[in-house]
Design a protein that fits this description.
alpha/beta; Rossmann fold; 2 domains; 6-stranded parallel beta sheet; globular; binds nicotinamide-adenine-dinucleotide
């Protein structure tokens, strides 16, 4: 199959490289000429474990190419994936579909043979209908099917998720499109990944429902953590106790500073807007969004409290800035609101992240950046673990204690046990362990 991927970001680049690895011929297109130029030199635009080797192998095998030229990339394609961004629209929280519609117009104008256009971007219910309308307007005589195929990969484990998905959802009722999509995903189908065909609107909603459900689960355990602190219980035991129930499951039950990232915040908001427009409110998701929003600054206040209530003029050291480990993605990371709360209270914030500093510099203006965990902690009045990168799991706590100005450790991911930290003489605050 000849596949064209429009948009070479987290989703487009990983999906394109994986499809090439399955044996398809893939052209990844991006508007960002600098990004394509760097990819020609095998410099990855994002940090994702294993991606550079996967890209290099498939480029060397002649199956994966990069271009800025949509027209030539589309001409020979059997399948065209749209994987451009769908951020929150400024002002109202609806998904901004302008990138999707612009990409579809460009593609439709360049199509030369029967083709399937597959929307991999996360888009609200009914977007496929509008895409179809645009296609008919731009290319009335073209033979084009419009399919929904949402992506469920997680940053940090993206290649594995793409190659071993829990399910592949394809929204189409067209027989030819089903055949083409079965061929595209055949290598995974052989591996027994369930390929689920459904109507296009159901497929579009599945993606939002999945993300909203996971956001609810995280937010639920975060509220339980607050309750644990109030009543003297341990949220990790509560998580384990409920997670062992197969109906609940143990994933996404880790208490922490609230969800962030490029998907949950914008997708929950967009779902609320869709629900509002259709007069079918989703109040559980409304509550989740509100609780999660307030939690980020609440974590800032938790740090202030752990430091004795007055932080003006003191230095606070933050470890981990990305919204989760193994990515450089800073979009909507809780670290941003936490740092701002501390700065608003008059503290100086110094921070370190293994891969995210370049991205963090773009969104955290008044923060000093360190080159490792220990230089970050040096002379600070508190050390705060915000994101649980592996390298923070086995810090030399004696050394940390000796270089901190005050022996305060705040662990927003519960990666240490209270007894071990206190034995070293650090004043330890974690989440939900009352
Ligand atoms: P991204 O911002 O990393 O990448 C989008 C890319 O598309 C950018 O490089 C941009 O330059 C390019 N682009 C925009 N318009 C273009 C056009 N007309 N032609 C060619 N290139 C164009 O975005 P992302 O994180 O990969 O997300 C893409 C979509 O996938 C979003 O809808 C997102 O919600 C969804 N999604 C993301 C993830 C994730 O973990 N990041 C997971 C599942 C689904």
């Amino acid at each position: 199959m000849q596949i064209t991927m429009i948009g070479t970001g987290y989703v487009g680049l990983v999906s394109g490289a994986c499809f090439a690895d399955f044996g398809h011929r893939v052209t990844c297109v991006d508007k960002d000429a600098g990004k394509i130029e760097r990819l020609h030199q095998n410099i990855m635009p994002i940090y994702e474990p294993g991606l550079d080797a996967l890209v290099a192998d498939n480029v060397a095998a002649g199956r994966l190419t990069f271009t800025t030229d949509t027209e030539s990339a589309v001409a020979e394609a059997d399948v065209i994936f749209i994987a451009v961004g769908t951020p929150s629209r400024r002002g109202d929280g609806h998904a901004d579909l302008s990138y999707v519609y612009a990409a579809v117009r460009e593609v439709a104008a360049a199509v030369k043979k029967p083709v399937v256009i597959v929307n991999k971007s996360t888009v609200p219910v009914g977007t496929g209908d509008e895409v179809e309308r645009i296609v008919r307007e731009v290319a009335p005589d073209a033979d084009i099917c419009v399919v929904s195929n949402p992506e469920f990969l997680r940053e940090g484990a993206a290649i594995d998720d793409f190659k071993r998905p829990d399910r592949i959802v394809v929204g189409t009722e067209d027989a030819r499109a089903r055949e083409v999509m079965s061929e595209v995903y055949r290598p995974l189908f052989i591996n027994q990944s369930p390929l689920m065909f459904t109507a296009r609107r159901s497929s579009e909603l599945i993606k939002y429902a999945a993300n909203a459900f996971l956001a609810v689960k995280i937010t639920f355990i975060n509220e339980m953590a607050d309750l644990c602190e109030a009543v003297g219980a341990n949220v990790q035991d509560v998580s384990r106790g409920i997670g062992l129930d197969n109906r609940i499951g143990s994933k996404f039950l880790h208490a922490g500073p609230g969800y962030g990232g490029s998907c949950f915040p914008k997708d929950t908001l967009a779902l609320l807007k869709t629900a509002e427009d259709h007069e079918a409110p989703v109040k559980i998701v409304e509550a989740t969004v509100a609780v999660n929003d307030s939690r980020k600054r609440a974590m800032g206040r938790k740090i202030v409290k752990a430091m004795g209530g007055e932080i003006r003029g003191k230095t606070v050291a933050l470890l981990g800035l990305t919204f989760k480990p193994n990515t450089d993605d800073m979009r909507d990371s809780p670290a941003i609101a936490i740092a701002q709360t501390l700065i608003d209270e008059g503290a100086h914030v110094r921070a370190y992240d293994p891969e995210g500093i370049e991205q963090a510099k773009l969104v955290m203006k008044d923060v000093e950046f360190a080159t490792d965990a220990y230089s970050c902690a040096e002379g600070a009045s508190a050390l705060v673990i915000v994101t649980e990168w592996n390298e923070f799991r086995a810090l030399d706590l004696k050394r940390i204690k000796s270089i901190l100005a005050e022996p305060v450790l705040v662990d927003l991911r519960n990666i240490y046990t209270p007894a071990e930290v206190r034995r070293i003489g650090l004043d330890y605050t974690s989440v939900g362990r009352g």
